[in-house]
């Protein structure tokens, strides 16, 4: 690629980002709700709380020379279905990361512009798409997507084509968002000639074919990325414990590899690590993507989420697995999903919220640090 071609590609992706994204924390469109929290985040990132739109657009000029770890917020919970509220995850988790890990070198690219009633463009008729394009882009004839899953996938295809050495750390949002995040990642890695595996931490398999007639949602996203892997068992799931069917059903039906939470407890985390690494070594894997649903962690530590579950992984167990993986393989993409700061089923309110955010931030900071090395 010539320097002129590279510059054209850089200019094109910057224009798309400026249209399809918005400043960090602004993915949830509100007038007054959480206004102070948004202003605090903007003050920390941009040094001021007003007129941040232009400052954010100018910051996109730094993307080519920035850290390999790039943050993208997708503040959508339209693909969820139990307790909503994960759309506030990107705002709250960013604030916790900045407060607890001020030395992180990740570049924050901003948030996907979310119309909260939409999921993916394929579910919309032409009139609705035209109306939404007019609302988002002031042009009903625009070519840009309008739904969060569709915008994310479209933006990331161009992102990886322009910056193949960089990786996206997605902050959700409900777990349906991992569908475009991982799909764009896996397709980009295949074009680069690399074999990538997905390490998926979750209490649930997310291997439904559909949920109530919708094929792309928080309970089905894994099913629809399997064909983008070199082998289906390159999806490795850790922490599963809430399922109406046994482990054998999921592994035999979908070809994935699972490590249920009770197995981790019974055999110990060190043996679990040995088992995962043995599989990866036999598969000649080059790079890893980590998708982390916060409900993989036991609900005593992570109850501010839509589907908190008991008998899960302890934070240190999850961190031990991640450290061992990172010692052997570059982590070049990741996400943190399903933190719902205003939603807590434990009755402990802000204490539970802050505890969940602390755990989510510790895991996220580690993943971002590893991605910045890649």
TrEMBL record:
Family in the record: Belongs to the arginase family.
Single biological process term from Gene Ontology: putrescine biosynthetic process from arginine, via agmatine
Protein name in UniProt: Arginase family protein
Organism: Litorilituus lipolyticus
Keywords recorded for this protein, A-Z: Hydrolase, Metal-binding
Gene3D superfamilies given in the database record: Ureohydrolase domain
GO molecular function: agmatinase activity; metal ion binding
């Amino acid at each position: 690629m010539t320097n002129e071609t590279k510059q054209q590609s850089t200019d094109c992706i910057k224009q798309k980002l400026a249209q399809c994204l918005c400043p960090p924390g602004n993915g949830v469109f509100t007038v007054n709700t959480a206004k102070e929290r948004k202003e605090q985040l903007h003050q920390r990132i941009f040094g001021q709380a007003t007129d941040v739109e232009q400052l954010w657009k100018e910051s996109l000029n730094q993307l080519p020379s920035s850290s390999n770890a790039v943050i993208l917020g997708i503040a959508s919970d339209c693909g969820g279905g139990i307790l909503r509220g994960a759309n506030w995850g990107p705002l709250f988790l960013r604030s916790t990361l900045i407060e607890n890990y001020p030395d992180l070198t990740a570049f924050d690219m901003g948030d996907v512009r979310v119309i909260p009633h939409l999921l993916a463009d394929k579910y919309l008729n032409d009139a609705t798409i035209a109306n939404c394009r007019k609302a988002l882009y002031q042009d009903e004839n625009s070519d840009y997507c309008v739904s969060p899953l569709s915008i994310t996938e479209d933006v990331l295809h161009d992102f990886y084509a322009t910056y193949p050495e960089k990786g996206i750390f997605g902050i959700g949002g409900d777990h349906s968002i991992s569908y475009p995040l991982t799909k764009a990642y896996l397709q980009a890695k295949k074009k680069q000639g690399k074999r990538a595996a997905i390490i998926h931490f979750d209490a649930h398999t997310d291997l439904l074919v559909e949920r109530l007639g919708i094929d792309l949602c928080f309970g089905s996203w894994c099913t629809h990325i399997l064909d983008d892997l070199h082998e289906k068992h390159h999806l490795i799931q850790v922490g599963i414990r809430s399922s109406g069917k046994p482990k054998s059903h999921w592994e035999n039906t979908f070809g994935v590899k699972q490590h249920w939470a009770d197995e981790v407890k019974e055999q110990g985390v060190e043996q679990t690590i040995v088992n995962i690494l043995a599989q990866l070594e036999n598969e000649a894997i080059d790079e890893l993507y980590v998708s982390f649903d916060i409900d993989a962690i036991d609900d005593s530590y992570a109850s501010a989420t839509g589907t908190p579950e008991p008998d899960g992984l302890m934070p240190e167990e999850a961190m031990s697995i991640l450290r061992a993986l990172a010692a052997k393989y570059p982590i070049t993409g990741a996400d943190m999903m399903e933190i719902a700061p205003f939603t807590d089923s434990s009755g402990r309110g802000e204490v539970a919220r802050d505890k969940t955010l602390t755990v989510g931030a510790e895991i996220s900071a580690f993943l971002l640090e590893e991605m910045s090395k890649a």
